[in-house]
Design goal:
single chain, alpha+beta, Creatine Amidinohydrolase, Chain A, domain 1, 3-stranded antiparallel sheet, 13 helices, 37% helix, 18% strand
Length: 427
Amino acid sequence: MVAFDTPLIYTVHLMDTFFSADFFIRNRQALRNRIGSNIPIVITGNGLMQRSGDEPTTFHQDSSFWYLTGINNPDLTLVILANETYLIVPVLSFEREAFDGAHDLTAYAARSGIQTILDARVGWQRLKSSLQDQRTVAVLASPPAFMKRHGLHTLPYRRRLIAKLKRYNPRLSFQDVRPEMAALRCIKQPQELRAIQSAIDITTETLQEIVTKDTLATATREYQIEAALSYGFRNRGAESHAFAPVVGAGRHSTTLHHTANDGVIALHDVIVLDVGASVEHYAADITRTVSQQPIRGRAAEIFRAVAAVQDFALSQIKPGILPLDYERRVRTYMGEQLRALGVITEVTDDAIHKYFPHATSHFLGLDTHDVGDYREPWQENMVITCEPGIYIPEEGIGVRIEDNVLITSTGNTVLSAACPRELVAVQ
């Protein structure tokens, strides 16, 4: 049942979608099957985060919550019990409804296939009652509040949910279902592959437009290219960038995640464009290294070395390969290229890492760095990136080439093959 009715729409799009309610219903059932018991499953979505003052950042839904519901609205909670499934939605103040719009519960139900939607006053009390005789609840475990390696303060919603459930029943223990979610999400279904391909096609068309028109030739600042990317993505129907775009010219090309995009572009600078459109939450992630003039001399040597490493890496991608073994082989090949370039004298891990400090491949999907187990062999219908790069700060030259790759039953298909690796001449 839909428990309460309001007249306004709170942003649920049902038109022109790759995903029907059946997709989300199947995903919830698949999660239940993987857990293999009837313990309650409680999954929280994200909420609004402060940008400054009373202004929020742009809302982005928790990817696993979206995978199970398809709803892109803040502060919702999914409850999957043995005999019922329901959503808990917050009660909005008059001001919140006036500024942001009210819940459209009919649209929520149509999108997710969940027919019972309860306001927070009713929903949390119902969940509290159902947990009194339970000993275990399945949740997505929370990361630490601060991820030191990445310098990130993490979202608080999973921690808050677990604390709330613990108050309801102090005897509860929690089963972390992140491994089960990762196992489901890393194998892409046909609808997901269509969304990813759409994001890749939009990214490809926009990159080709920028490079073949006057945008690249006349750009004097990195942000001019960023603006053209944003326009091209939105004009072709993408929701947004899948991640903060990297437009790194000259010395900025050696900074892997240069997202300020505030630098000056000189005529012969190499420019690393690491970009991707988002379509229905699914990401493209393509990198091309370009210049306003043909790439010549030392930059061309480095470009050809990176292209050779990517060719080798692509030859290794197929089902049954362990990602960690693959990375070792690619790094060894990269070491030989770096030695041939005269950048290193000995092929050692430390020497290679200085000029190639990241992995070659990561999973791609709802998140740009999507979930998946790097200790397990690749399987058919996984989507990964292939992105070797060489970065030489002392020479002010960085080159990265990145494509998106579908693992097939016999090998792989490069989904971004329509985007030429050499968008400009390399001489």
